[in-house]
C-alpha cells in the first residue's frame, strides 16, 4: 500500500514542499489538478511547479480535472492542459466527480473517459464519494479506470482501489488530502494484443471489471451490454492500427491481452 496526495492551487509547489510531504506523511505519488471546468481562468497556476518537483522528488506524478458537468468541452480543455505540461501517455489521468451534478452522471463520465482513451491515455481513474459509489455500478465505467473514493470516518463500503481517508493532513501550506493506494503500480507495461486467428475461436475475458461491448471497431460507441470477468465468447480477431479487436456476435471488444485471452 502506498500513500497519495492530491494537489490543487491551495497547496505548495516547491521541491521543499514535496520533500516535506514525503518526509512527514510518507507520500510517494501526487495527483496534480490541472483544470476546473473548461474555463482557463480557473486553471491551477501552481501546476507546473507541482508536477516538475513531484517528478524530481518522487519519480512519478498524475494529473486530474475537477468536473462541472459538461464532458466534451471539459475533456478537451483538460487534454490541452495535459499536453501543455508535456505529460506522456502512461500518465495517470483522473476525473474528479463531486458536488451537485444533474443528468446521467455515469454516461457523462464515460464520455469524458472515452475522449481521454481515444487520445491515447489509457491509465485512467475516477474520483467520487462513497455515496456515489454505493448508488452506481463502477463496472459500467468505460476503460476500467481506477476507482478513487473519499470517505473520512470509515473505510468505504463500496468498491475502491484508492481510499481518500483525510482532507486535513497538516503541512506548511495548510491542509492536504491524503489517500491509501491499494492499486497496482501506476507504471503501465506496454500493451500487447491477441493475434489474428481463424474465425470462430474462443476467448476469455480476464479484466476485473469485465469488458464493454461496442458497435464499432474503434470502440467509441458502447452498447448497454458487457461481458463480465471469466465470460467465454466466440469471435474473430480484427486488426485495428497497432491494436486488435475481437469481433463477437454482440459487437466488438478490445483485444488487449491485459483484458482478454485466447483459449
TrEMBL record:
The keyword Cell membrane does not apply. It comes from the Bacteria. The keyword S-adenosyl-L-methionine does not apply. PROSITE patterns: GLYCOSYL_HYDROL_F25_2 (PS51904). Pfam families: Glyco_hydro_25. Belongs to the glycosyl hydrolase 25 family. This is Glycosyl hydrolase family 25. It comes from Apilactobacillus apisilvae.
